[in-house]
Amino acid sequence: MLKSYIAFDLETTGLDPQENEIIEIGALKVREGKVADRFMEFIRPVSPVSATITDLTGITNEMVADARPRKAVISDFLDFCEDDVLVGHNIAFDYSFMKAGAAIDNLPFEKMGIDTLKIARKVHKDLDSKSLGRLCAYYRIENKAAHRAYHDALATAKLYQTLAHYFEAEDPKLFKPMQLTYKIKKPQPATPKQIAFLESLIRKKGASLQWDPETISRSEASRMIDGLLKG
């Protein structure tokens, strides 16, 4: 079992790292098996947080309104990670969002990782669900605020230690860090029609949004338009 690593979790506005945004990063730095440092911060999204995401996470638009923008938070998180191995539950999801978010600002994010979901699928074929909540219930791991990034990250760290305690000796390869990968699609620039419609919506709604018509991508424009129409 690794004694030093970063356990992390994200809350996002949806499931697609190319279309949706990170709204919260939660992580803990483990050194010699103990929590040595923490990272907990909201990110101010370009588009409003939907009612569905608020119902799931408890994160409201008011909570992220004064948060720092993506680049500042992700840059600090990359510094926090140093060269550590990442541990996450369904880590491919969280890594894809971090990789995509970092890439927008040309920040490198190449990491090794351990996925507790992958481990659980191998050692707990008997369980009907391998979700973090189900596994925490099975092992009686307390999670004081499920679907909030830091608390899920802390629960994941406890789950990793528990799974390693019971199963690493019999299947050590399952617990070895693997290179994390995510291929980022090249963003397409917003169309003139999108930009014109977005400018019209902003004037009509009296919205205050930070964006650059010269650099905004097609997906970012679409996300902002959807947010303004729903708002």
How would you describe what is shown here?
It is a single chain. Helix content is 43%, strand content 16%. It is α/β, with parallel strands linked by helices. The longest helix is centred in the C-terminal third of the chain and has 19 residues, at 149-167. The N and C termini lie far apart (47 Å).
Summarize the structure.
This protein is an alpha/beta fold and 231 residues long. It has nine helices and six strands.
Per DSSP, the total helix count is 9
Query: Roughly how many Å apart are the termini?
Result: 47 Å
- Percent in helix: 40-55%
Low-confidence stretches: none
The major β-sheet equals: 6 strands, mixed
**Which word captures the global form?**
elongated
**Strand count:** 6
Find the structural class using helix and strand composition: alpha/beta
Radius of gyration: 19 Å
